[in-house]
Amino acid sequence: MSTTSLIWIIVVVAVLLAVALVTGVVLARRRRISLTEPEQDKPAKGGYRAGGAITFNEPAPPVAEPTRPAEPVERSGASPAPVERAERVEPVERVEPVERVEPVEHPVAERTEVDGQPGVGDDAAVPRDSAKRGFVEVDLPEQASEIEEIEPTSGRLERLRGRLSRSRSTFGQSLLGLLGAGDLDEDSWTDIEDTLLMADLGAAITDQIVAALREQIVARGVRTSDDVRALLRDVLVDALHPEMRRAVNALPHADGASGPKPAVVLVVGVNGVGKTTTTGKLARVLVADGRTVLLGAADTFRAAAADQLETWGSRVGASTVRGAEGADPASVAFEAVKQGVAAGVDTVLIDTAGRLHTKTGLMDELGKVKRVVEKQAEVDEVLLVLDATTGQNGLTQARVFAEVVDVTGIVLTKLDGTAKGGIVFQVQRELGVPVKLVGLGEGADHLAPFEPTAFVDALLT
Ligand SMILES: Nc1nc2c(ncn2[C@@H]2O[C@H](COP(=O)(O)OP(=O)(O)OP(=O)(O)O)[C@@H](O)[C@H]2O)c(=O)[nH]1
């Protein structure tokens, strides 16, 4: 072979190698997904649409403005003008802080009739408001001197979306970062799984979401940060079952032989999760919607709980029926519904006590409350209140309550205080019951309707 031929061969091989190298680099770059595009901070397509108000459901054909007998409750509209103060506003007893912090013996040990087992009215553990905890942590709202203005419910979640910032940064943004970081190897998928598990989505939903992402990232040919966001949004919204009915059954029953009957809503859950606060916030929403409300303080284990509820009521002109401390919760609930029917209010909201951690005790008490209430009127909604910050504990509670009463909706409180917003996914799956409302703060109007799309958008944008 001549020298010229050899030189030509070397040149051709060098050119081929250079072409192969350039092609490889270009292909590798095209497979990368970058999240640094200017589009990054724009809302996902369709935008954040949390404009919905809390919706209420009527149990039967709509009632045409029922005429109500004289009732000391003035209505407030969506933009309420100052209304006259309701008659029954009694001074709220202030509970002084308990200073002593000592362990408390469980009272059941001293009781002979229950054979050492907790009975109705007992806690499995020492109640949180025993001397061990102290009332100092319970923030009683100030007694209002006049009826307050209530923030309109429409657009409320949009206004409160900033309160989901902890979940947004540790859950939403982490996922976007991981998915958009380029070639996804097995380590990346493990990181994605860990992020979902740490946000309290639970193993089953994590598997479901990861499988959907793996499949669709290829099927859709995901390339850009917008593609990633859109895919993640669709997969998360889908896992939240947007088709579930989330209206609260709180509107009165149509005229019957004996006239219109109020809707009855039972608010249940263990102590400290935010039942009383939620009942108060819900009363405000109903009043803002032009409804008349009567409150039943069936949490008779703690006088301050009834005071707290009464204060919430007085702030919006709703009366509260309460019993003596330690009274039978069922009798208070019965009386509240009886008075609600007599007064012709639209809704009776009953705050129950959740002190019974033993299933039998809980069943006895809640079952009795429901039975006696049903002698007066149908129970339309049983709202189970869960504290989003309690993770697995909250789920255990949810299971017990679901076995005991027919839970029709979940209120997830304290979502503002947690980075684990994923509990929403898990609790719906566990119970098969929709999350209807979410608590996003201690403020009087920090209760919002739960909307899957708006929620996911708040996490991702
Ligand atoms: N950050 C935050 N705090 C909340 C929320 N909902 C309730 N809380 C607070 O949680 C605490 C307990 O609320 P309560 O309404 O007294 O709870 P409860 O379940 O009625 O408790 P018991 O009356 O003891 O059974 C209060 O300090 C509330 O202000 C919420 O959505 N976010």
Automatic annotation (TrEMBL):
<keyword id="KW-0378">Hydrolase</keyword>
<dbReference type="GO" id="GO:0006614">
    <property type="term" value="P:SRP-dependent cotranslational protein targeting to membrane"/>
</dbReference>
<keyword id="KW-0342">GTP-binding</keyword>
<comment type="subunit">
    <text>Part of the signal recognition particle protein translocation system, which is composed of SRP and FtsY.</text>
</comment>
<dbReference type="Pfam" id="PF00448">
    <property type="entry name" value="SRP54"/>
</dbReference>
<keyword id="KW-0675">Receptor</keyword>
<keyword id="KW-0472">Membrane</keyword>
<dbReference type="GO" id="GO:0005886">
    <property type="term" value="C:plasma membrane"/>
</dbReference>
<keyword id="KW-0963">Cytoplasm</keyword>
<dbReference type="GO" id="GO:0005525">
    <property type="term" value="F:GTP binding"/>
</dbReference>
<comment type="function">
    <text>Involved in targeting and insertion of nascent membrane proteins into the cytoplasmic membrane. Acts as a receptor for the complex formed by the signal recognition particle (SRP) and the ribosome-nascent chain (RNC).</text>
</comment>
<dbReference type="InterPro" id="IPR027417">
    <property type="entry name" value="P-loop_NTPase"/>
</dbReference>
<dbReference type="InterPro" id="IPR036225">
    <property type="entry name" value="SRP/SRP_N"/>
</dbReference>
<feature type="binding site">
    <location>
        <begin position="351"/>
        <end position="355"/>
    </location>
    <ligand>
        <name>GTP</name>
    </ligand>
</feature>
<comment type="similarity">
    <text>Belongs to the GTP-binding SRP family. FtsY subfamily.</text>
</comment>
<dbReference type="Pfam" id="PF02881">
    <property type="entry name" value="SRP54_N"/>
</dbReference>
<feature type="transmembrane region" description="Helical">
    <location>
        <begin position="6"/>
        <end position="28"/>
    </location>
</feature>
<keyword id="KW-1133">Transmembrane helix</keyword>
<dbReference type="InterPro" id="IPR000897">
    <property type="entry name" value="SRP54_GTPase_dom"/>
</dbReference>
<protein>
    <recommendedName>
        <fullName>Signal recognition particle receptor FtsY</fullName>
        <ecNumber>3.6.5.4</ecNumber>
    </recommendedName>
</protein>
<feature type="binding site">
    <location>
        <begin position="269"/>
        <end position="276"/>
    </location>
    <ligand>
        <name>GTP</name>
    </ligand>
</feature>
<dbReference type="GO" id="GO:0005737">
    <property type="term" value="C:cytoplasm"/>
</dbReference>
<feature type="compositionally biased region" description="Basic and acidic residues">
    <location>
        <begin position="84"/>
        <end position="93"/>
    </location>
</feature>
<feature type="region of interest" description="Disordered">
    <location>
        <begin position="38"/>
        <end position="93"/>
    </location>
</feature>
<dbReference type="InterPro" id="IPR003593">
    <property type="entry name" value="AAA+_ATPase"/>
</dbReference>
<feature type="domain" description="SRP54-type proteins GTP-binding">
    <location>
        <begin position="434"/>
        <end position="447"/>
    </location>
</feature>
<keyword id="KW-0547">Nucleotide-binding</keyword>
<dbReference type="GO" id="GO:0005047">
    <property type="term" value="F:signal recognition particle binding"/>
</dbReference>
<dbReference type="InterPro" id="IPR004390">
    <property type="entry name" value="SR_rcpt_FtsY"/>
</dbReference>
<keyword id="KW-0812">Transmembrane</keyword>
<feature type="binding site">
    <location>
        <begin position="413"/>
        <end position="416"/>
    </location>
    <ligand>
        <name>GTP</name>
    </ligand>
</feature>
<keyword id="KW-1003">Cell membrane</keyword>
<dbReference type="InterPro" id="IPR042101">
    <property type="entry name" value="SRP54_N_sf"/>
</dbReference>
<dbReference type="InterPro" id="IPR013822">
    <property type="entry name" value="Signal_recog_particl_SRP54_hlx"/>
</dbReference>
<dbReference type="GO" id="GO:0003924">
    <property type="term" value="F:GTPase activity"/>
</dbReference>
